[in-house]
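Page header: ASSEMBLY MODEL / two components / 600 residues total.
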Amino acid sequence: MSESAKAIIRKPQKPFFFNTSEHLLRIGRQKAANLSELLHAMQTCPDDSIFQHTFRTLQEHHFIRQGFSNDFAHWSLFACNEPALAEQLASVDVREFTAIEGLRRRMVEILDEFLHRENRPGSRPAYEPFYFCASDIVVLPTSFRAETLAGFLDGINQVSVHSIHHHFIEARLRLHRMSNDFSQWLEEELGLSEAADDIERIDIYANTLEGVRRHIARIVSQAMN
Amino acid sequence: MSSEDRSATSAGSTIESQAPTNGSTNAESAASALTLPRHARRSTDRRVADRRLNRPLPASVLTPPTPPPPAHMDAYAPIVGQAQIDTLRFLAKELKGKTIKMVNSTAVGGGVAEMLNRLVPLLSELEVPTHWDVITGGNDFFEITKAFHNALHGTPYELTQSAKDIFLMYTEQNRARMKFDEDMVVIHDPQPAALVRSRGNTQAHWVWRCHIDLSNPNPGVWEFLRPFVEQYDAAIFSSQSFARQLPIPQYLFYPCIDPLSEKNKELTDSQIQQACDDFGIDRNRPIVTQVSRFDRLKDPVGVVQAYKLAKKYVDCQLVLAGGGATDDPEGAIVLQEVKEAAGNDPDIIILDLPPWCAVQIMPSNAHQPSLFKSR
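Prediction written out in full:
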Protein backbone atom coordinates (compact mmCIF):
# COMPACT_ATOMS: atom_id res chain seq x y z
CA MET A 1 0.00 0.00 0.00
CA SER A 2 1.38 3.39 -0.90
CA GLU A 3 2.18 6.04 1.69
CA SER A 4 -0.78 8.19 0.63
CA ALA A 5 -3.23 5.33 0.72
CA LYS A 6 -2.16 4.50 4.25
CA ALA A 7 -2.66 8.12 5.17
CA ILE A 8 -6.30 8.11 4.17
CA ILE A 9 -6.89 5.17 6.45
CA ARG A 10 -4.76 6.43 9.28
CA LYS A 11 -6.56 8.79 11.58
CA PRO A 12 -4.43 11.49 13.14
CA GLN A 13 -4.10 11.40 16.89
CA LYS A 14 -4.18 15.16 17.00
CA PRO A 15 -6.20 17.43 14.72
CA PHE A 16 -4.54 20.31 12.93
CA PHE A 17 -5.73 23.64 14.30
CA PHE A 18 -5.37 26.43 11.78
CA ASN A 19 -4.34 29.57 13.58
CA THR A 20 -3.48 32.97 12.25
CA SER A 21 -1.75 36.05 13.54
CA GLU A 22 -2.43 39.75 13.50
CA HIS A 23 0.18 42.41 13.99
CA LEU A 24 0.09 45.85 15.54
CA LEU A 25 3.01 47.73 14.09
CA ARG A 26 5.10 49.71 16.58
CA ILE A 27 7.40 52.49 15.44
CA GLY A 28 10.69 52.03 17.26
CA ARG A 29 13.03 54.64 18.67
CA GLN A 30 15.99 53.69 16.48
CA LYS A 31 16.59 54.94 13.00
CA ALA A 32 19.54 54.94 10.65
CA ALA A 33 20.57 57.80 8.41
CA ASN A 34 23.49 55.92 6.82
CA LEU A 35 24.96 52.42 6.58
CA SER A 36 27.13 52.79 9.70
CA GLU A 37 24.08 53.71 11.72
CA LEU A 38 22.20 50.80 10.18
CA LEU A 39 24.97 48.45 11.28
CA HIS A 40 24.90 49.79 14.82
CA ALA A 41 21.12 49.63 15.03
CA MET A 42 21.03 46.09 13.60
CA GLN A 43 23.42 45.03 16.35
CA THR A 44 21.44 46.61 19.15
CA CYS A 45 17.79 46.60 18.14
CA PRO A 46 15.37 44.16 19.78
CA ASP A 47 14.80 40.76 18.20
CA ASP A 48 11.30 41.73 17.19
CA SER A 49 12.69 44.51 14.99
CA ILE A 50 14.85 42.02 13.09
CA PHE A 51 11.79 39.79 12.82
CA GLN A 52 9.71 42.71 11.57
CA HIS A 53 12.09 43.71 8.79
CA THR A 54 12.73 40.16 7.55
CA PHE A 55 10.00 37.62 8.30
CA ARG A 56 7.23 40.19 8.45
CA THR A 57 8.34 41.92 5.24
CA LEU A 58 7.62 38.68 3.46
CA GLN A 59 4.12 38.69 4.91
CA GLU A 60 3.37 42.35 4.26
CA HIS A 61 4.48 42.05 0.65
CA HIS A 62 3.09 38.59 0.16
CA PHE A 63 1.47 39.57 -3.12
CA ILE A 64 4.68 40.37 -5.01
CA ARG A 65 7.52 38.22 -6.22
CA GLN A 66 9.75 41.00 -7.48
CA GLY A 67 11.92 43.23 -5.34
CA PHE A 68 13.89 42.43 -2.26
CA SER A 69 12.66 40.07 0.38
CA ASN A 70 13.69 42.09 3.42
CA ASP A 71 13.63 45.77 4.34
CA PHE A 72 17.38 46.03 4.93
CA ALA A 73 18.11 44.97 1.35
CA HIS A 74 15.41 47.25 -0.02
CA TRP A 75 16.76 50.26 1.85
CA SER A 76 20.37 49.51 0.86
CA LEU A 77 19.41 49.82 -2.76
CA PHE A 78 16.80 52.55 -2.81
CA ALA A 79 18.11 54.84 -0.07
CA CYS A 80 21.85 54.10 -0.28
CA ASN A 81 22.28 53.12 -3.91
CA GLU A 82 24.29 50.01 -3.01
CA PRO A 83 23.00 47.25 -5.29
CA ALA A 84 25.75 44.76 -4.43
CA LEU A 85 25.00 45.04 -0.72
CA ALA A 86 21.29 44.86 -1.41
CA GLU A 87 21.72 41.61 -3.32
CA GLN A 88 23.78 40.06 -0.56
CA LEU A 89 21.27 41.00 2.10
CA ALA A 90 18.39 39.81 -0.07
CA SER A 91 20.06 36.46 -0.63
CA VAL A 92 19.69 35.58 3.04
CA ASP A 93 16.96 32.95 3.28
CA VAL A 94 15.05 33.49 6.52
CA ARG A 95 14.02 29.86 6.48
CA GLU A 96 17.62 28.84 7.22
CA PHE A 97 17.22 30.28 10.70
CA THR A 98 15.34 28.88 13.63
CA ALA A 99 16.17 31.79 15.92
CA ILE A 100 16.35 35.52 15.31
CA GLU A 101 19.83 35.79 16.79
CA GLY A 102 21.34 33.73 13.99
CA LEU A 103 19.55 35.80 11.37
CA ARG A 104 20.73 39.02 13.00
CA ARG A 105 24.34 37.75 13.06
CA ARG A 106 24.21 36.92 9.37
CA MET A 107 22.82 40.31 8.40
CA VAL A 108 25.38 42.13 10.55
CA GLU A 109 28.23 40.06 9.06
CA ILE A 110 27.18 40.95 5.54
CA LEU A 111 26.92 44.66 6.25
CA ASP A 112 30.12 44.77 8.30
CA GLU A 113 32.09 42.91 5.65
CA PHE A 114 30.69 45.11 2.93
CA LEU A 115 31.73 48.30 4.70
CA HIS A 116 35.24 46.96 5.28
CA ARG A 117 35.81 45.09 2.03
CA GLU A 118 34.41 47.72 -0.25
CA ASN A 119 35.93 50.52 1.79
CA ARG A 120 32.63 52.34 1.58
CA PRO A 121 32.12 55.49 3.65
CA GLY A 122 29.45 54.23 6.01
CA SER A 123 28.65 57.78 6.98
CA ARG A 124 27.41 58.78 3.52
CA PRO A 125 23.87 60.04 4.12
CA ALA A 126 21.07 57.87 2.84
CA TYR A 127 18.35 59.37 0.70
CA GLU A 128 15.87 58.70 3.50
CA PRO A 129 16.29 57.21 6.99
CA PHE A 130 15.60 53.62 7.91
CA TYR A 131 13.04 53.50 10.70
CA PHE A 132 13.19 50.45 12.93
CA CYS A 133 9.77 49.04 13.68
CA ALA A 134 8.44 45.98 15.45
CA SER A 135 5.16 44.18 15.80
CA ASP A 136 2.96 43.24 18.70
CA ILE A 137 1.67 39.87 17.55
CA VAL A 138 -1.64 38.34 18.48
CA VAL A 139 -2.08 34.67 17.59
CA LEU A 140 -5.71 33.73 17.19
CA PRO A 141 -7.66 30.69 16.10
CA THR A 142 -9.57 30.36 12.86
CA SER A 143 -12.73 28.32 12.39
CA PHE A 144 -10.77 25.63 10.53
CA ARG A 145 -9.65 22.45 12.19
CA ALA A 146 -8.57 19.33 10.30
CA GLU A 147 -9.08 15.78 11.49
CA THR A 148 -8.54 14.21 8.08
CA LEU A 149 -6.37 14.90 5.08
CA ALA A 150 -9.44 16.16 3.21
CA GLY A 151 -10.23 18.52 6.04
CA PHE A 152 -6.62 19.70 5.98
CA LEU A 153 -6.86 20.45 2.27
CA ASP A 154 -10.09 22.33 2.86
CA GLY A 155 -8.40 24.46 5.51
CA ILE A 156 -5.39 25.14 3.29
CA ASN A 157 -7.72 26.36 0.56
CA GLN A 158 -9.77 28.61 2.81
CA VAL A 159 -7.61 30.20 5.50
CA SER A 160 -6.07 33.61 4.96
CA VAL A 161 -2.55 34.02 3.65
CA HIS A 162 -1.65 35.27 7.12
CA SER A 163 -2.46 31.82 8.44
CA ILE A 164 -0.26 30.30 5.73
CA HIS A 165 2.57 32.63 6.78
CA HIS A 166 2.03 31.79 10.43
CA HIS A 167 2.22 28.03 9.94
CA PHE A 168 4.63 27.84 7.04
CA ILE A 169 7.19 30.60 7.60
CA GLU A 170 7.01 31.91 11.16
CA ALA A 171 6.74 28.38 12.52
CA ARG A 172 10.51 27.85 12.42
CA LEU A 173 11.02 30.35 15.19
CA ARG A 174 8.41 28.59 17.29
CA LEU A 175 9.48 25.02 16.53
CA HIS A 176 13.22 25.81 16.56
CA ARG A 177 13.66 23.30 13.77
CA MET A 178 13.99 23.44 10.01
CA SER A 179 10.41 22.60 9.33
CA ASN A 180 6.95 24.06 9.36
CA ASP A 181 3.65 23.24 11.07
CA PHE A 182 2.11 21.71 7.95
CA SER A 183 5.00 19.36 7.23
CA GLN A 184 5.29 18.42 10.87
CA TRP A 185 1.64 17.43 11.13
CA LEU A 186 1.60 15.54 7.84
CA GLU A 187 4.67 13.58 8.87
CA GLU A 188 3.95 12.96 12.54
CA GLU A 189 0.21 12.42 12.38
CA LEU A 190 -0.24 10.87 8.96
CA GLY A 191 3.18 9.49 8.14
CA LEU A 192 3.30 11.50 4.92
CA SER A 193 7.00 12.23 5.01
CA GLU A 194 7.30 12.61 1.23
CA ALA A 195 4.55 15.21 1.09
CA ALA A 196 6.02 16.88 4.16
CA ASP A 197 9.39 17.16 2.42
CA ASP A 198 7.81 18.46 -0.78
CA ILE A 199 6.02 21.19 1.15
CA GLU A 200 9.19 22.13 2.98
CA ARG A 201 10.95 22.59 -0.35
CA ILE A 202 8.47 25.18 -1.70
CA ASP A 203 10.42 28.28 -2.63
CA ILE A 204 8.91 31.20 -0.75
CA TYR A 205 10.97 33.71 -2.70
CA ALA A 206 9.77 32.60 -6.12
CA ASN A 207 6.12 32.53 -5.02
CA THR A 208 3.57 34.82 -3.51
CA LEU A 209 1.84 33.46 -0.42
CA GLU A 210 -1.13 32.60 -2.62
CA GLY A 211 1.31 30.68 -4.80
CA VAL A 212 2.60 28.88 -1.71
CA ARG A 213 -0.98 27.98 -0.82
CA ARG A 214 -1.57 26.54 -4.29
CA HIS A 215 1.62 24.46 -4.11
CA ILE A 216 0.67 23.05 -0.71
CA ALA A 217 -2.83 22.25 -1.92
CA ARG A 218 -1.44 20.49 -5.00
CA ILE A 219 0.96 18.39 -2.91
CA VAL A 220 -1.80 17.44 -0.47
CA SER A 221 -4.18 16.59 -3.34
CA GLN A 222 -1.54 14.35 -4.88
CA ALA A 223 -1.04 12.63 -1.53
CA MET A 224 -4.79 12.00 -1.33
CA ASN A 225 -4.93 10.55 -4.81
CA MET B 1 -22.62 78.91 22.21
CA SER B 2 -21.72 82.13 20.50
CA SER B 3 -22.94 82.99 17.06
CA GLU B 4 -19.47 82.29 15.81
CA ASP B 5 -19.40 78.84 17.24
CA ARG B 6 -19.46 75.99 14.84
CA SER B 7 -21.78 73.17 15.34
CA ALA B 8 -21.02 70.39 17.72
CA THR B 9 -22.22 66.91 17.16
CA SER B 10 -22.43 63.97 19.43
CA ALA B 11 -22.86 60.70 17.72
CA GLY B 12 -23.64 57.21 18.67
CA SER B 13 -23.72 54.44 16.20
CA THR B 14 -26.19 56.31 14.01
CA ILE B 15 -23.61 58.73 12.83
CA GLU B 16 -25.39 59.87 9.72
CA SER B 17 -27.89 61.75 11.86
CA GLN B 18 -25.29 64.17 13.11
CA ALA B 19 -24.48 66.54 10.33
CA PRO B 20 -23.81 70.10 11.51
CA THR B 21 -26.92 71.93 12.52
CA ASN B 22 -25.73 75.50 12.76
CA GLY B 23 -27.60 78.19 10.88
CA SER B 24 -25.38 78.35 7.86
CA THR B 25 -23.93 74.96 7.31
CA ASN B 26 -20.73 74.31 5.55
CA ALA B 27 -22.66 72.65 2.80
CA GLU B 28 -24.96 75.62 2.37
CA SER B 29 -22.15 78.10 2.27
CA ALA B 30 -20.31 75.90 -0.17
CA ALA B 31 -23.41 75.72 -2.31
CA SER B 32 -24.09 79.44 -2.17
CA ALA B 33 -20.51 80.17 -3.14
CA LEU B 34 -20.70 77.70 -5.95
CA THR B 35 -20.64 78.87 -9.46
CA LEU B 36 -20.50 76.66 -12.42
CA PRO B 37 -19.74 77.57 -15.98
CA ARG B 38 -21.91 76.12 -18.66
CA HIS B 39 -19.32 74.76 -20.97
CA ALA B 40 -19.02 74.13 -24.61
CA ARG B 41 -19.29 70.38 -25.08
CA ARG B 42 -16.59 70.02 -27.68
CA SER B 43 -13.11 71.36 -28.02
CA THR B 44 -13.97 72.75 -31.43
CA ASP B 45 -16.71 74.92 -29.97
CA ARG B 46 -15.58 78.52 -30.39
CA ARG B 47 -17.86 79.84 -27.66
CA VAL B 48 -15.19 79.05 -25.10
CA ALA B 49 -15.89 82.20 -23.14
CA ASP B 50 -19.12 80.60 -22.00
CA ARG B 51 -17.14 78.13 -19.96
CA ARG B 52 -16.16 80.86 -17.54
CA LEU B 53 -19.65 82.23 -17.04
CA ASN B 54 -20.99 81.81 -13.56
CA ARG B 55 -23.97 79.52 -13.47
CA PRO B 56 -25.56 77.73 -10.57
CA LEU B 57 -24.80 74.10 -10.04
CA PRO B 58 -27.37 71.62 -11.27
CA ALA B 59 -30.08 70.81 -8.76
CA SER B 60 -28.91 67.21 -8.71
CA VAL B 61 -25.69 68.40 -7.11
CA LEU B 62 -27.16 71.01 -4.77
CA THR B 63 -29.64 68.66 -3.20
CA PRO B 64 -28.09 66.32 -0.69
CA PRO B 65 -29.07 62.76 -1.50
CA THR B 66 -30.44 60.44 1.14
CA PRO B 67 -27.31 58.86 2.53
CA PRO B 68 -27.16 55.11 1.97
CA PRO B 69 -27.14 53.01 5.11
CA PRO B 70 -23.62 52.23 6.31
CA ALA B 71 -22.21 48.98 4.98
CA HIS B 72 -22.23 46.02 7.32
CA MET B 73 -19.09 44.09 8.14
CA ASP B 74 -20.07 41.10 6.02
CA ALA B 75 -20.35 43.30 2.94
CA TYR B 76 -16.56 43.58 2.99
CA ALA B 77 -16.02 39.81 2.89
CA PRO B 78 -15.94 39.55 -0.92
CA ILE B 79 -13.18 42.16 -0.93
CA VAL B 80 -10.94 41.23 2.01
CA GLY B 81 -11.95 37.61 2.42
CA GLN B 82 -14.14 35.94 5.03
CA ALA B 83 -11.04 34.99 7.03
CA GLN B 84 -10.24 38.65 7.66
CA ILE B 85 -13.80 39.34 8.78
CA ASP B 86 -13.62 36.34 11.14
CA THR B 87 -10.38 37.70 12.55
CA LEU B 88 -11.95 41.08 13.25
CA ARG B 89 -14.92 39.46 14.96
CA PHE B 90 -12.63 37.32 17.08
CA LEU B 91 -10.50 40.29 18.12
CA ALA B 92 -13.61 42.33 18.88
CA LYS B 93 -14.84 39.66 21.31
CA GLU B 94 -12.05 40.70 23.64
CA LEU B 95 -13.40 44.23 23.57
CA LYS B 96 -17.08 43.37 23.79
CA GLY B 97 -18.85 45.92 25.94
CA LYS B 98 -15.89 48.29 26.04
CA THR B 99 -16.75 51.74 24.83
CA ILE B 100 -14.77 54.10 22.65
CA LYS B 101 -15.05 57.82 22.12
CA MET B 102 -13.69 59.37 18.93
CA VAL B 103 -13.11 63.13 18.89
CA ASN B 104 -12.15 65.27 15.94
CA SER B 105 -12.73 68.79 14.70
CA THR B 106 -15.30 68.45 11.94
CA ALA B 107 -18.25 66.21 11.13
CA VAL B 108 -18.27 67.02 7.44
CA GLY B 109 -15.45 67.33 4.93
CA GLY B 110 -11.95 66.01 5.12
CA GLY B 111 -10.58 62.53 5.49
CA VAL B 112 -11.02 62.06 9.24
CA ALA B 113 -14.75 62.78 9.18
CA GLU B 114 -15.11 60.51 6.20
CA MET B 115 -13.24 57.73 7.95
CA LEU B 116 -15.21 58.05 11.20
CA ASN B 117 -18.49 58.01 9.31
CA ARG B 118 -17.68 54.44 8.31
CA LEU B 119 -15.63 53.28 11.26
CA VAL B 120 -18.08 54.18 14.02
CA PRO B 121 -20.96 52.02 12.71
CA LEU B 122 -18.58 49.12 12.02
CA LEU B 123 -17.20 49.19 15.56
CA SER B 124 -20.70 49.34 16.96
CA GLU B 125 -21.67 46.36 14.80
CA LEU B 126 -18.78 44.51 16.44
CA GLU B 127 -20.43 45.29 19.80
CA VAL B 128 -17.84 47.86 20.69
CA PRO B 129 -20.11 50.88 21.24
CA THR B 130 -18.37 53.88 19.75
CA HIS B 131 -19.36 57.51 20.13
CA TRP B 132 -18.16 60.37 18.02
CA ASP B 133 -17.88 63.91 19.31
CA VAL B 134 -16.79 66.99 17.39
CA ILE B 135 -15.15 69.90 19.17
CA THR B 136 -16.56 73.39 18.82
CA GLY B 137 -14.80 76.68 18.39
CA GLY B 138 -15.08 80.11 16.89
CA ASN B 139 -13.45 81.29 13.71
CA ASP B 140 -10.51 82.52 15.78
CA PHE B 141 -9.93 78.97 17.05
CA PHE B 142 -10.09 77.36 13.63
CA GLU B 143 -7.87 80.02 12.09
CA ILE B 144 -5.27 79.19 14.72
CA THR B 145 -5.61 75.44 14.36
CA LYS B 146 -5.32 75.78 10.60
CA ALA B 147 -2.14 77.80 11.10
CA PHE B 148 -0.93 75.06 13.48
CA HIS B 149 -1.75 72.48 10.85
CA ASN B 150 0.29 74.29 8.22
CA ALA B 151 3.12 74.96 10.69
CA LEU B 152 3.31 71.30 11.66
CA HIS B 153 3.81 70.59 7.98
CA GLY B 154 6.77 72.93 8.05
CA THR B 155 5.27 76.28 7.02
CA PRO B 156 6.98 79.23 8.80
CA TYR B 157 4.82 80.50 11.64
CA GLU B 158 5.33 82.73 14.65
CA LEU B 159 3.45 81.23 17.58
CA THR B 160 2.14 84.00 19.79
CA GLN B 161 0.90 83.91 23.38
CA SER B 162 -2.46 85.08 22.11
CA ALA B 163 -2.73 82.06 19.80
CA LYS B 164 -1.88 79.73 22.66
CA ASP B 165 -4.46 81.41 24.89
CA ILE B 166 -7.22 81.13 22.30
CA PHE B 167 -6.35 77.48 21.61
CA LEU B 168 -6.46 76.65 25.31
CA MET B 169 -9.59 78.71 25.97
CA TYR B 170 -11.60 76.69 23.44
CA THR B 171 -10.02 73.50 24.73
CA GLU B 172 -11.35 74.35 28.19
CA GLN B 173 -14.79 75.15 26.75
CA ASN B 174 -14.87 71.77 25.07
CA ARG B 175 -13.62 69.99 28.16
CA ALA B 176 -16.42 71.59 30.16
CA ARG B 177 -18.97 70.44 27.60
CA MET B 178 -17.72 66.93 26.92
CA LYS B 179 -17.75 63.84 29.08
CA PHE B 180 -15.19 61.11 28.81
CA ASP B 181 -16.95 58.13 30.35
CA GLU B 182 -15.72 55.63 27.77
CA ASP B 183 -13.03 53.01 28.22
CA MET B 184 -10.94 54.42 25.41
CA VAL B 185 -10.68 57.93 24.07
CA VAL B 186 -9.20 58.47 20.61
CA ILE B 187 -8.38 62.07 19.79
CA HIS B 188 -7.78 62.82 16.13
CA ASP B 189 -5.21 65.40 15.02
CA PRO B 190 -3.86 68.48 16.81
CA GLN B 191 -7.03 70.57 17.10
CA PRO B 192 -8.50 68.63 20.06
CA ALA B 193 -5.14 67.31 21.32
CA ALA B 194 -5.20 69.29 24.57
CA LEU B 195 -8.45 67.59 25.64
CA VAL B 196 -6.08 65.08 27.21
CA ARG B 197 -6.08 67.44 30.17
CA SER B 198 -9.29 65.65 31.10
CA ARG B 199 -7.66 62.27 31.40
CA GLY B 200 -6.92 62.80 35.08
CA ASN B 201 -10.61 62.49 35.82
CA THR B 202 -11.06 59.25 33.90
CA GLN B 203 -9.97 55.63 33.85
CA ALA B 204 -9.86 55.61 30.08
CA HIS B 205 -6.93 54.81 27.84
CA TRP B 206 -6.15 57.86 25.74
CA VAL B 207 -4.77 57.57 22.23
CA TRP B 208 -3.70 60.40 19.94
CA ARG B 209 -4.30 59.57 16.26
CA CYS B 210 -2.22 61.92 14.19
CA HIS B 211 -3.20 61.98 10.53
CA ILE B 212 -0.73 64.66 9.48
CA ASP B 213 2.93 64.74 8.57
CA LEU B 214 5.07 65.69 11.58
CA SER B 215 8.40 64.88 9.95
CA ASN B 216 9.48 68.52 9.80
CA PRO B 217 7.27 70.49 12.19
CA ASN B 218 7.58 74.12 13.11
CA PRO B 219 9.51 73.86 16.40
CA GLY B 220 7.43 76.46 18.22
CA VAL B 221 4.11 74.79 17.52
CA TRP B 222 5.42 71.29 18.13
CA GLU B 223 7.01 72.25 21.45
CA PHE B 224 3.68 73.78 22.47
CA LEU B 225 1.75 70.62 21.58
CA ARG B 226 4.31 68.05 22.70
CA PRO B 227 3.49 68.22 26.45
CA PHE B 228 -0.11 67.36 25.61
CA VAL B 229 0.85 64.51 23.29
CA GLU B 230 3.14 63.06 25.96
CA GLN B 231 0.17 62.68 28.30
CA TYR B 232 -1.45 60.11 26.01
CA ASP B 233 -1.00 56.38 26.46
CA ALA B 234 -0.03 55.96 22.82
CA ALA B 235 0.13 57.76 19.50
CA ILE B 236 -0.71 56.49 16.04
CA PHE B 237 0.86 57.83 12.85
CA SER B 238 0.30 57.15 9.16
CA SER B 239 3.99 56.71 8.35
CA GLN B 240 7.17 55.86 10.24
CA SER B 241 8.65 59.13 9.07
CA PHE B 242 5.83 61.14 10.70
CA ALA B 243 6.64 59.84 14.18
CA ARG B 244 8.56 61.93 16.73
CA GLN B 245 10.81 61.02 19.60
CA LEU B 246 8.22 60.58 22.34
CA PRO B 247 8.17 58.77 25.68
CA ILE B 248 4.94 56.97 24.73
CA PRO B 249 4.51 53.99 22.38
CA GLN B 250 3.95 54.97 18.78
CA TYR B 251 2.08 52.80 16.32
CA LEU B 252 1.71 52.76 12.57
CA PHE B 253 -1.67 52.58 10.85
CA TYR B 254 -1.37 52.85 7.10
CA PRO B 255 -3.82 55.13 5.31
CA CYS B 256 -6.68 53.23 3.80
CA ILE B 257 -9.79 53.68 1.74
CA ASP B 258 -13.25 52.27 2.12
CA PRO B 259 -13.98 50.26 -1.01
CA LEU B 260 -17.72 50.40 -0.32
CA SER B 261 -18.06 54.14 0.15
CA GLU B 262 -20.09 55.99 -2.43
CA LYS B 263 -17.10 57.65 -4.00
CA ASN B 264 -15.17 54.43 -4.46
CA LYS B 265 -17.90 52.60 -6.27
CA GLU B 266 -17.70 51.90 -9.96
CA LEU B 267 -19.72 54.37 -11.98
CA THR B 268 -21.99 53.48 -14.83
CA ASP B 269 -21.35 55.14 -18.15
CA SER B 270 -24.56 57.12 -17.83
CA GLN B 271 -23.46 58.48 -14.45
CA ILE B 272 -20.14 59.52 -15.94
CA GLN B 273 -21.89 61.17 -18.86
CA GLN B 274 -24.30 62.97 -16.53
CA ALA B 275 -21.48 64.38 -14.40
CA CYS B 276 -19.55 65.50 -17.46
CA ASP B 277 -22.68 67.10 -18.92
CA ASP B 278 -23.42 68.85 -15.62
CA PHE B 279 -19.95 70.33 -15.43
CA GLY B 280 -19.23 70.82 -19.10
CA ILE B 281 -16.38 68.37 -19.29
CA ASP B 282 -15.40 67.19 -22.75
CA ARG B 283 -14.90 63.43 -22.64
CA ASN B 284 -13.18 63.47 -26.01
CA ARG B 285 -10.11 65.26 -24.68
CA PRO B 286 -7.65 64.28 -21.95
CA ILE B 287 -8.55 65.38 -18.44
CA VAL B 288 -5.99 66.37 -15.84
CA THR B 289 -7.56 66.43 -12.42
CA GLN B 290 -6.97 66.92 -8.74
CA VAL B 291 -9.68 66.01 -6.27
CA SER B 292 -9.05 67.56 -2.89
CA ARG B 293 -10.06 70.28 -0.48
CA PHE B 294 -8.88 73.75 -1.48
CA ASP B 295 -5.92 73.65 0.83
CA ARG B 296 -2.40 74.98 0.30
CA LEU B 297 -0.96 71.64 1.35
CA LYS B 298 -2.62 70.09 -1.67
CA ASP B 299 -0.97 72.79 -3.80
CA PRO B 300 -3.83 73.37 -6.26
CA VAL B 301 -2.04 76.42 -7.68
CA GLY B 302 0.93 74.16 -8.43
CA VAL B 303 -1.45 71.86 -10.26
CA VAL B 304 -2.66 74.76 -12.38
CA GLN B 305 0.94 75.62 -13.21
CA ALA B 306 1.70 72.00 -14.11
CA TYR B 307 -1.39 71.88 -16.31
CA LYS B 308 -0.24 75.02 -18.13
CA LEU B 309 3.10 73.36 -18.87
CA ALA B 310 1.35 70.31 -20.30
CA LYS B 311 -1.21 72.39 -22.17
CA LYS B 312 1.51 73.70 -24.51
CA TYR B 313 1.76 70.21 -25.98
CA VAL B 314 -1.50 68.46 -25.16
CA ASP B 315 -5.00 69.82 -25.71
CA CYS B 316 -6.17 68.82 -22.26
CA GLN B 317 -8.61 70.09 -19.65
CA LEU B 318 -7.96 70.65 -15.97
CA VAL B 319 -10.65 69.75 -13.45
CA LEU B 320 -10.03 70.86 -9.89
CA ALA B 321 -12.81 69.28 -7.89
CA GLY B 322 -12.98 69.99 -4.20
CA GLY B 323 -14.83 71.50 -1.33
CA GLY B 324 -14.32 72.65 2.21
CA ALA B 325 -14.46 71.48 5.78
CA THR B 326 -15.90 73.26 8.78
CA ASP B 327 -12.52 73.26 10.50
CA ASP B 328 -10.74 74.83 7.53
CA PRO B 329 -11.36 78.59 7.30
CA GLU B 330 -8.61 78.98 4.71
CA GLY B 331 -10.49 77.18 1.97
CA ALA B 332 -12.22 80.24 0.50
CA ILE B 333 -8.93 82.15 0.28
CA VAL B 334 -7.20 79.25 -1.43
CA LEU B 335 -10.12 78.83 -3.81
CA GLN B 336 -9.75 82.48 -4.78
CA GLU B 337 -6.01 81.98 -5.34
CA VAL B 338 -6.79 79.05 -7.60
CA LYS B 339 -9.28 81.07 -9.61
CA GLU B 340 -6.72 83.83 -10.06
CA ALA B 341 -4.09 81.32 -11.15
CA ALA B 342 -6.56 79.80 -13.60
CA GLY B 343 -7.26 83.18 -15.19
CA ASN B 344 -9.57 83.02 -18.16
CA ASP B 345 -8.57 79.61 -19.43
CA PRO B 346 -11.86 78.02 -20.47
CA ASP B 347 -10.39 74.55 -20.10
CA ILE B 348 -9.78 74.94 -16.38
CA ILE B 349 -12.90 73.80 -14.57
CA ILE B 350 -12.99 74.60 -10.87
CA LEU B 351 -15.69 72.81 -8.90
CA ASP B 352 -16.34 73.82 -5.31
CA LEU B 353 -18.66 70.98 -4.46
CA PRO B 354 -20.78 70.18 -1.42
CA PRO B 355 -19.42 67.27 0.61
CA TRP B 356 -22.12 64.85 -0.51
CA CYS B 357 -20.99 64.86 -4.15
CA ALA B 358 -19.44 61.42 -3.97
CA VAL B 359 -20.43 60.41 -7.48
CA GLN B 360 -19.15 63.62 -9.00
CA ILE B 361 -15.76 63.40 -7.31
CA MET B 362 -13.88 60.15 -7.45
CA PRO B 363 -12.45 60.52 -4.82
CA SER B 364 -11.70 63.48 -2.54
CA ASN B 365 -8.81 62.24 -0.51
CA ALA B 366 -5.13 62.71 -1.17
CA HIS B 367 -4.38 59.09 -0.31
CA GLN B 368 -6.80 57.82 -2.89
CA PRO B 369 -5.78 57.13 -6.42
CA SER B 370 -8.82 57.41 -8.60
CA LEU B 371 -9.71 60.27 -10.88
CA PHE B 372 -12.63 61.55 -12.81
CA LYS B 373 -13.71 58.69 -14.90
CA SER B 374 -13.57 59.39 -18.56
CA ARG B 375 -13.34 57.50 -21.77
